[in-house]
Design a protein that fits this description.
By secondary structure, the protein is mainly α. The protein is built from 4 helices and no strands. α1 packs across α2.
């Protein structure tokens, strides 16, 4: 089976659909492993939509926000 990649909008839609229609039914529909779904959900809860950027971690996000705050004060 070919590996499928999902973009940010698709991940958000799948998370929303799973909360409305049930997790197992939605994951089966899209062929997603539960570990992937829960990883996406955790990133969304911890970092918001920005967490779906490749390689983004809470530490990166914190540093980016610090730099943005510093730039705005300059």
């Amino acid at each position: 089976m070919k590996k499928r990649t999902f973009n940010k909008e698709e991940k958000l839609r799948i998370i929303k659909e799973a909360s409305e229609n049930g997790i197992s039914q939605t994951l089966e529909k899209y062929g997603i492993y539960p570990a992937s779904y829960y990883s996406w959900k955790k990133k969304l809860e911890e970092m918001g939509e920005e967490g779906f950027h490749h390689g983004m971690t809470p530490q990166h996000l914190k540093r980016i926000r610090e730099l943005e705050k510093e730039n705005s004060s300059l």
